[in-house]
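Case study B.
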Amino acid sequence: MSFFCSSLCRLVAMSVELKLSRSNRIFRPNEPLEGKIITKLPSSISHNGIRLTVNGSVTLQVRGGSAGVIESLYGVLKPIPIVNKSIEVRSSGRIGSGTTEIPFSVILKHPGDDNLERFYETFHGGNVSIQYLVTVDVVRGYLHKSLSATVEFIIESEKASLPDQPVSPELVIFYITQDTQRHSLLPELRSGGFRVTGKIGTQCSLSDPLKGELTVEASAVPIHSIDIHLLRVESILVGERIITETSLIQTTQIADGDVCHNITLPIYIILPRLLTCPTIYAGPFSIEFKVSIVITFQSELLKLNPKSDPRTPRLWLAMESVPLELIRTK
Amino acid sequence: MEFRPRNYTAEEATYSLPRSHADTHPLSTPSPSHHQVDVVDHKKDDFYDPLRGSDANGKVSIDNLQDEENSSAVSKADVGLPEKEWTSFKKLLMQRFSGPKMVSISKMSDVIVKSGKVHEKTSTTMPLEELDDPQKFAEDGIKVISQQEYVSRLHELKDEVARAWRADDRVTSLKVSIKVARLLTDTSVLQFYPTLFVLATDVMDMLGNMVWQRIKQKAEFAEDGNVICSLPENFDEKYICLDAKETCSNWFFKIGSIRELLPRIYLELAILPCWRFLLNRPMDVLERLVMMTRGIADPLASAYCRLYLAHCAQKLPQHNTRYLIICINDMEILLTRFLSEKEATHEKFSENCGSFVSLTEPAIEYIIKCIIKESYQTRAGEVLMDLGLGRKQPCVSIILHHLLKELSSELVGSNALEILQLIECSKDYSFDQCLNYRLLGFRLSERSQLDIINAVVDKIIQVVSAYNNLDEYLKVIDAYVDIILQNQMDNHLHVILDGIAKRACNEGIAEIELTSLQSIFLKLLAHFNNLEDIFSLTHFIEILDMMHGSSRSMVNMHILNIATRNRCIGDPTIIQFIFEVSQSLHDGIDYSNMRDDDNQQRARLISRFVNMVDYGTEVERQLAFLVECRGAFRSINELKETLVRSSNCLAVKAMKDGKKHLSFVKSCIAYSEVTIPSVPSRVRQFILYLETAEIALLGGLVSHSDGLLDSAIICLQTLDLMDGNAERGVTYIPRCMLTLINSQSWMTSRMRTMVLCAIVSLAATLSQFKLPYHANHEEMLGNDHLFFGDPTYLQELLSLSALILQNLVDFIMQEPSRVARGSMALEACNCIASSFNPSHEVLPFFSKLMETAKSCLSSNDKYLHSTIKCTAKFLQTNT
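Model:
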């Protein structure tokens, strides 16, 4: 976000910047948000106060495609506020020329406070976004544009409330054959058959990679690729209806080409930050995750449809989806 | 200054002594026998040294390499194969597969095709975002670009990575690196793939280093430049500050999000050492990467990926072999599948499969080297088991080959039977089985135990007896000959010679087989070192007769060398045999092709042989032999001299033996006389004529002797006495000599004086209108004809003489001994007196020398007196 601000401020040759105390910008709700306001000024200016605003909210949005005509009229739903605080760091006065650093510390959640909402972890999704921003405003009266800067910071759950690492991560065994597929397959696939087995975690700590393994036991048609799709399932309550949309977060190929049969291939997926968060079931919305194992077989048809959506069942694809619960652990 | 005019004819008449007939020749003492043998023996050093053979060379270097590795493994076990080795490995890799000129690329390699260059829109307009979703399907339109273009494009990409990094645009650096890594998915470039690999991994390594440096910097220095800590070589993860760790795991996050498997593995390998900032034992990561590599189905791409993995693992401080063994075993599975598929389809078998195997080979070789090196101290035996020795099932022969190559000789020795069994059951197309048998033989020759050796050799003999192909037979046998010879397994030796003979008879010996055969024969020769033993080997001569070309010559040379090592050769069968050997060697000399020294060596050997043949008392037979030699070895010039000398010797020998030798001596002399003209050098001819003339005289053959002397003189006359080369000036040679004696400090004043006096005399002679000798040749004009009356010619000679006179006086004055100085001065006086007319230019030199002589010598000295007397006349003419 800092580049956003600097491009604006450069016009007037003065700038204000926010620098958080942690380079990864991760804070927990019970920790103070600390950092510095840095102003760079060609000459000293007077101001009517420096304010810091912390804003956290859940943004919900229904996209036309998945929603019906009526729902799409709603468009962007009203965001759900989590935190909204404003404090004055400095009362009106002057800031000298050159670089000035003003430290700040904001308590996000007072122990006794009745907060508006839980501090959900930051999540950048398709329909649901959970975002925390901190903004600084240097107010300069009517004649001057106020200087401001905004930075996103990332909220992770409080350590104290977290469960310990699951002792043994739950693994689910899957097997994919021509008979487990509900869509139509290439005739040679249907007749020749194939069998891919393996296991994969269904519960995974966000700080760990998602692990599992996979073995191609048999396949009459050579395999073109095996990919693991990480999917998010975002549900929003719109009126009386729950609108759910599943979309792709990340694809990870684990087999490229017709791999040898009966050797174990590891599944090892690093969960992307910001794009994942602990699975949430809140009233107005929920965020869940899914893993889908997709086997692409070699086929002439494949060459004709190079850019099809990997989640659409096709004649040359076989797939299996497994729900994935993401958790934050200590 | 002027020369004294001479009339040589008149002088000769005046000064000749009256001649009378002599009964005995002054040279009639028997001439001593020559010392040729010794001389030849001294030259033995130049002879072909079997230790310097090219084969041996190769082996030595491999051994050295191993030694080096071993020692480095001992001294710094945790350093791994040094970076230098990787560099040279890469260089070799690129040299070995220089690749085709044109490279066909699939659309995947879009990054290679520069914007706007090729008809395609997609590649140029593709935004970076699409990187993560490349559509590698549906590509029938394969493009072709030149290899050079490809390489230079890769260099550009490398620069781009570096440039972006310097501009703090690390995202671009990473993105371009991913593009480069993605190129490695396309193995359709085949022969170009190794080059591509080297160039692409260069980019990976560069990126890896930059990331490492950056994180290290973050760990060691705070943002404000203050030192946080200084990391030791073997640092612990807990000393790394959070900020650095954060940056580091960020890199792994970014790389983890790469969709495609191969680039993801390459990139993680590139920054593999950075795991050390996060973990203390990054070896687990390595194992996971090995497992991930299994997902790459293309055997070539996955082999090279494993190669890169082995290389990157060297950068970690700890090592183990587990992951490498998984690597090799996985490669084996892939190879087995590949080979069986090829076998099933018979699809362009030899060509495609062969090139594939040779492309994969470097990866196998490198990984096995790493395994052996790392397991060297600890558990080499276990590794051997892990790699398949224990499991009694076929092993892919190319892997077995490299394993066998790298194992320590102790291990090979003690596990020879097991290895043999493995070789026996691994019979696939990746590597010729017989070459593995062969390698085992070579490895066993390094070191082995007798009981095991016996069993192995028995088995090998059994195996090869089933071979119909001579080439394979020889290749295997070649490796075991040394073992068989060293352990005196005579019956085996017999069996293999028999085997060779049988197979060679059936199909003849092809070019490729000759090399092995040569090697086997040289080993036999080196072992027996005695011709009788060698001839007694059944089939030896039979097989030798079937050989041809340079291998035959090589073997022949060795035989000759052995034959001529002893004093002399008297056994007629051996002589006959060696004569034939020499003859074939001689016929094999190809003057247009071969190096000079090679020819010389053959000539030398043959001459030595001729020289050493000794029929004892059967002199006629020996002469017949010489005649035969002259016919047989026409083109060897140096031999002709030997022949003449031998025949002369023979004549002397016959004379000494005494009985009815005359006609025989005549035959010898006639032989010599006929042979001498074919000696190319005139000087040599001259000397040989003289020698022969002496022998003729010795034998009382005066007319023969006369004839020979006549020939000698003709010979001498044809030598051009004075080089009248106008370009260099007539006095070129004397002037050269003058420079020479001035420059050589070892020359005594006496020698200098003699040379200078001779030059003065020469100059005086050359100035005459008629020279004392002329070449007996119409077209060869003497200097007197060439320069008759030419004033510049005369002037040249005079100026030379003046120069010499000055030098002469100087040198004489330098002589420390009085007596010597005196006699030298007198000599010079005589020379001056006979060469010059007394003139005011000459006289000062003359009188100075005279003074010197008088002051140095006693007044009773006879030489002084006679000189004074003589020169008085000279001085008179002046006055």
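DSSP finds four helices and 21 strands in chain A. The remaining cases will be described in the next quarterly update.
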